[in-house]
Amino acid sequence: MSNYSREDIDRWFDYSYLPSKRLIHLGSHDAEMDSGEGESGTDCQMSEFLIKAIVHANNISSKPIVIHMNNIGGDWYHGMSVFDAIRASPSHVYGICWGHAMSMGSIIIQACDTRIVAPHCTFMIHDGFDSLSGTCRSVQAWSKYSIKLRKKMYELYLSRMINAKPRMNLKKIEKLCSHDTLFAAEEAVKYGLADWILETLDDPYKYYATNTQNGKWLSGMKPGKNERYYDDE
Q1: Could you tell me the domains of the chain?
Q2: SS3 for 133?
Q3: What is the pLDDT of residue 30?
Q4: Residue 224: strand, helix, or coil
Q5: Using CA atoms, how far apart are residues 78 and 74, in angstroms rounded to an integer?
Q6: Run of H or E including 10
């Protein structure tokens, strides 16, 4: 891994985005909890930040991007804007989950090309909550739309879980999401919600150099066909 300059360190801690190293930190923008309502989680600030960062990162280079995330969940619509931005990235995106990958946090990580989970991270999936108000017809309309979104969520989970769990289907996911279902890191990998458990912070770079999805980095191994992505530009 390259050394960091003082400017790099300042930018990383001040802005949570380090273009020169292709690093993004995705977490609550309001974590001070001054209001007593807890950290903000997935909200408009997170969405605007990630979209700007991912667009900029892809405009300046085609190197892989590593997103470090610790996400307690939050708003569906802002979360899906984050999901879509990651999914649309031409550059390979590694997501590393720390601590929480809950609710919307468990969905956002599914957008990453490679999903890595820290040893003590907890995944949680569920149907979420609807808070509806307005006229009777408006509530009915939003309720019907919520059912459509819930099905989209099940399909999204299924698309990433099916390789690890070939017998998984929408009915089984619906049952898992009917209440808060928790997964330890090992269970998240077993169920296909993540690809592997983090060993060191070099994992994404070593993995990328092995050329195969199931490749294991060994001491002395040479970088693979994607070595050019790590050349200085």
Answers
A1: 6-126+180-230 (3.90.226.10)
A2: coil
A3: 62
A4: coil
A5: 8
A6: helix 6-15
